[in-house]
Amino acid sequence: MNIVTLLPFIVLIGAMFLMTRSAKNKQRQAAQMRDTMQPGTGVRTIGGMYATVKEVHDDTVLLEVAPAVHAIYAKNAIGAVLSDAEYNHIVHGIDPDEDGADGVDSADTPVVPDDASSLTTPAGGADDSSAEKAPASEPEAGKADAKKIDLGKDDAAAADAPEGEKRDGGADAK
């Protein structure tokens, strides 16, 4: 037999070996993660339920899903063992960064506006800090210098015009 004919089989066997090796690695890591469970740690099941570990047995785990509500699960049903900060954030809504642990003062963080109107400059080119603010009683005072914006209102007049007088130069599509 020629080596060229055996090459596809060799590549296939090598790929299968690598895939089974990575699958065994993932299984080993999952088993190691499940072995680190202790009473009091927060977990997420593969179904997406968050609970606190109460007891750990050989193949089962007793979970507290709500105060005074316990359920027995198989160890294989545990999808992730969570850190205390992550569990408290998800289940109880306690944000670990709220107390200023990272040293950032909330007064230093920029405020993001709800709309884009504060991000634009007037048509004159000056920004809002140097421009004089218009009083609230005169809403049209600041708009005198603004460019006229075409909103397509003239298109309605063109649609009412006879066919021969249309301004767009094209024929109607049929």
Label this structure with key terms.
174 residues, single chain, 5 strands, alpha+beta
Strand order of the largest sheet: 4-3-2-1-5
Helix fraction?
25-40%
- Number of continuous helical runs: 3
Mean pLDDT: 74
Let me know the largest β-sheet: 5 strands, antiparallel
Radius of gyration, Cα only, in angstroms? 34 Å
How do the SSEs run, as a string of H and E? HEEEEEHH
**Approximate strand percentage:** 15-25%
What does this structure look like?
This protein is an alpha+beta fold. The protein has helices at 3-35, 84-92, 153-160, and strands at 42-45, 50-56, 60-66, 69-74, 78-82. A five-stranded antiparallel β-sheet has the order 4-3-2-1-5.
Could you give the topology of this structure?
Elements: H1 3-35, E1 42-45, E2 50-56, E3 60-66, E4 69-74, E5 78-82, H2 84-92, H3 153-160
Antiparallel strand pairs: 1-2, 1-5, 2-3, 3-4
Task: Offer a quick outline of the entry.
This protein is α+β, with helices and mostly antiparallel strands. The protein has helices spanning 3-35, 84-92, 153-160; strands spanning 42-45, 50-56, 60-66, 69-74, 78-82.
